Amino acid sequence: MINLSALDRSKIQDVYVGNNELSPFHACYANKDTVLRLAAGRYFAHHNGDDPVETYWALRKHAALYDVPERPIEITGPDVLAFLEHIFSRKISDMTNGRGRYVIACTFDGGLFMDGILFRLAQDRFWFVHPDGDLDTWLLAHRDGYNVTITDPHSRVLQLQGPKSYEIMHKLTNGQVDHRLLYFHSKFVTISGQKVYVSRTGWSGELGYEIYTLGQDTNYTLLWDHLFNIGAPKGMIFSSMQSINTRRIEAGILDSGSDFNTTVNPFEVGLDKFVDLEKQGFIGRHALLNAPRSKRLFGLLCADLIPSGGDLIFDGACEVGLVTTGAYSPNLNAGIGYVRFHKFDKSPTYDLSVHSAKGAVEACKIVELPFFDAYKKIPRQTLKPI
Length: 386
Hints:
Helix 5 (165-172) packs across helix 6 (220-231). The strands form five sheets. This protein has a six-stranded mixed sheet with strand order 12-13-14-11-5-15, with helices on both faces. It has a six-stranded antiparallel β-barrel with strand order 16-19-18-17-20-21. Strands 7-8-9-6-10 form a five-stranded antiparallel sheet, covered by helices on one side. The chain is globular. It has helices at residues 26-29, 52-61, 80-87, 135-141, 165-172, 220-231, 241-250, 285-289, 377-380, and strands spanning 15-17, 20-22, 34-39, 42-48, 63-68, 71-76, 99-106, 112-122, 125-130, 149-151, 157-161, 186-191, 194-199, 208-212, 236-238, 297-302, 312-315, 318-329, 334-341, 351-355, 361-367. The chain has two domains: 1-291, Probable tRNA modification gtpase trme, domain 1 (Gyrase A, domain 2, 2-Layer Sandwich); 294-368, Beta Barrel (Elongation Factor Tu (Ef-tu), domain 3), CATH 2.40.30.110. By secondary structure, the protein is of the alpha+beta class.
């Protein structure tokens, strides 16, 4: 983690710390308490002096704005469909323009390499938005034989999440975003006189939208100020990532690199519905045909301890699993997290113990994911015309 003081708002584009990118929105919110972390080569606000419980409830009851490190990669060209069908385990060719789709990429051994959202912007133009890792390098390494071009559109991403996000986006775009923009649909719109790409997606399990800037064509300060002029009167706040991280755990959303990695396959972490074994030729298919099917990732509830990544799970005196992530849930009034079992071939024992890195030992309960809203009724909800 690093701590940076606020920058001059007139000098917020193309700022780098070493080889990593500082957000062009950084100066709009940074203060003496700002602590940054790194993902996808981009710094983001892990903490900004905000209270994670207050920001959690702002997300649940009103709206919260997040400056996230997701990095879009653009893939274009005559062979783009064949190429993407080779990279991802889910069918791509039936996607229509203006649609997004959650997809995963596997290694040749069937391990989970990366997840993210694929958007079809035009007939031969896609964006893959990934949270962390080296997928651009992976794409370049497997481009041989395909007539495609892989580029960085230099898009920075804001997530506007929460029940008031629809009202805010509708007013922000002068009605261009309305009730007809459905879950995982996307389109180009104009905000404060400038073009951006907007999708009805997010990392929170709440109703929400993502705003994708267009590099040097975006006036970041103007966009930020317009967002707050519209959003603040409706209860919108800026939040660091802690509140959305808590909510995504509640929603059963996984984080690449922590909750899964190349040592596990999609079936073992509950992502089997995103693998189409009827589809020929995608990387990892042959290995997945005979891969273990038993799920190893479950939810963790702990009344007297907030679990952290790296904590160990014991069944009596036997270590059986590892906590991949954890947080305090204000909604459940408990510590929550995910546990990945080392080996698993039957339903888990539901009363185990968590051994924290600080030496604490507390009872915990193993539950199915997500913790609530199993059918995603909140983000999928039907919206009414404004």
